[in-house]
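A common beginner's mistake is to predict each chain separately and then try to dock the pieces by hand. The better habit, illustrated here, is to supply every component at once so that their relative placement is modeled jointly.
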Amino acid sequence: MATVEELKLRVRELENELIKCKQKRCAEKDAGGSQKHYRQRIEKMSAEVVDSNPYSRLMALKRMGIVEDYERIRSFSVAVVGVGGVGSVTAEMLTRCGIGKLILFDYDKVELANMNRLFFQPHQAGLSKVEAAEHTLRSINPDVSFETHNYNITTMDNFTHFMDRISHGGLQEGKPVDLVLSCVDNFEARMAINTACNELGQIWMESGVSENAVSGHIQLIIPGETACFACAPPLVVAANIDEKTLKRDGVCAASLPTTMGVVAGILVQNVLKYLLGFGSVSHYLGYNAMQDFFPTMSMKANPQCDDHYCRKQQEEYKRKEAERPKQEVVVVEEAQVVHEDNEWGIELVSEVTEEELQAASGPKPDLPEGITVAYTIPEKVNAPAGEMVEETEQSLEELMSQMKRM
Amino acid sequence: MADEATRKAVSEIPLLKTNSGPRDKELWVQRLREEYLALIKYVENNKSADNDWFRLESNKEGTRWFGKCWYIHDLLKYEFDMEFDIPVTYPATAPEVAIPELDGKTAKMYRGGKICLTDHFKPLWARNVPKFGLAHLMALGLGPWLAVEIPDLIAKGLIQHKEQQNNS
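With all components supplied together, the output reads:
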């Protein structure tokens, strides 16, 4: 006989099935029973300016001398991790631009609480975000190939699969993707992406919106060259809000469609510039919505980074740089723009006693006005205060059963 | 960071030595042994201070943890199931503890019933990598969360005492 748990699972499965059926019917109704609203796939991008050409305005970028070869967009594969407020809009922009392939990762479902953000619609509530997104995006542009993964990348099994898809999910199966975009909303997932990209030497871009919804940032991470996510404590755009007046009671996070749209916009702009080779690609671009201030900077990888793959990539980068002829020196200089004076005395670590602050504050990286770190980490001390675990003869199994008996 | 009692409890939890995560094979076993030693010591300390409040166990790989935590309010014991996965980036990032049965009842939770920790938990954890382990996560993360949220949920009538519920 089936257990209650199994039955619960079955009910959940059937509910999902029902939502999908309803969706399909809605879509059919929308389409008036015909396929009229869905266009055929287009083999080759045309620059012809006619109402029926979805690429005419994009191809015009070539004629205007902005982009040299716009069609190249179809040769790229981009992974979008996190299909929420920023990720879904990012995926839509790339889809409309005619990207070759999109790989979407998200473990979450669409909820009515997401309706203050762009992209998802109320009738999609209950569907997995990746599934709902694929459905919409495919109907917008059937030329894009999609691959979706509905799981949490930070757990062991999924992480292995995630790494595999980053290194093999290119437009041509087996090749790595061209770029990974982090559109996640938490530190754990960012660190997981960072770990994967450092190991694989995969270039990626990080994006984020603050929990109070009034600032955000994007960052380009080239393993070994620019600072990785573990090279420094998380960077934040100084919001210039008095911490004491910032009320957090009763909520975890606020969000605005505006801030998320702006961040998705500057992210995809940077992606297009990076992939298609026009303009200058930002290493870090912040957005402070309260003052309408956009600080920029560039930060080199930290030789003492805790991630040993980051350090390894740095060695590799150094070796390559040394081998390069002199002309490339310009690129190195570009990576050093960091050192402007930092007059900001703002310490974001609040709600901590003075002693704790003194004991716990560490060196702050040299950052331009408007950008700071979420917290500092003190220099490593060899003899930590406090008692360490004592070594015992007990095996892990013995300890597990001892804990169980308590 | 926290009240005096929490500080004292935390200072009595042994610190961990091995900086390794679930993707490191043998070193992870060593880290797991340290995790269990620290957890056992913390539970023993709680018992002797008459403040026993949780139990935890894991799968044999130590990647998935589950257990119970309870909170005494007006002499009644409110018990909840908790669970969490060890992220691949552990111990650089702390696990996200979830109490699924409270999902949707409080705004101080992320989807799936993951508890929303205070602003200073993350800096505190980051500064203490790899010395802090799961016992510290319980003492500094889940413990203070329960102490704030449970009385509030009871006052709002969002959770009832299980036996009372059965009697009525």
